[in-house]
């Protein structure tokens, strides 16, 4: 249990509440991916998902948005 103090603004009363941290299942979010990334760095290996992979994923999403803005026009990759 954690006690958290907060205020709704400057000059307002400080309120304290007890909160319980919810457990997060291992499959939630990117925990496994993050673990593999950290392990790869510590072992001097290339991570299974690289910054280049992330860049390409964002590039693909951006191309889809551009295509949608231009009535489905084909967008040439790389941007």
Describe the overall structure.
The chain has 79 residues and is an alpha+beta fold. The protein has two domains: 1-48, no CATH class; 50-79, no CATH class. The chain has helices spanning 31-42, 51-69; strands at residues 2-7, 14-19. It has a two-stranded antiparallel sheet.
Topology diagram in text:
Layout: E1 2-7, E2 14-19, H1 31-42, H2 51-69
Antiparallel strand pairs: 1-2
Write a concise synopsis of the structure shown.
The chain is α+β, with helices and mostly antiparallel strands and 79 residues long. The chain has helices at residues 31-42, 51-69, and strands at residues 2-7, 14-19.
Largest sheet: 2 strands, antiparallel
Class by alpha and beta content? alpha+beta
User: How many domain modules?
Assistant: 2
**Count the strands?**
2
The N- and C-terminal alpha carbons lie at a distance of 49 Å
Q: What is the topology, as strand order, of the major beta sheet?
A: 1-2
Strand fraction equals 15-25%
Rough outline: flat
Low-pLDDT runs of 5+ residues are none
C-alpha-based Rg, rounded: 22 Å
Give the SSE order as H and E letters: EEHH
Mean pLDDT: 87
* SS element count, helices: 2
Estimate percent helicity.
25-40%
């Amino acid at each position: 249990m954690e006690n958290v103090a907060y205020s709704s603004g400057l000059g307002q009363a400080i309120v304290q509440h007890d909160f319980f941290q919810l457990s997060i299942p291992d499959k939630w979010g990117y925990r496994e991916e993050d673990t593999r990334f950290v392990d790869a760095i510590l072992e001097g290996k290339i991570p299974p998902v690289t910054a280049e992979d992330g860049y390409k994923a964002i590039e693909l999403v951006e191309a889809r948005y551009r295509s949608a803005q231009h009535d489905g026009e084909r967008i040439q990759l790389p941007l």
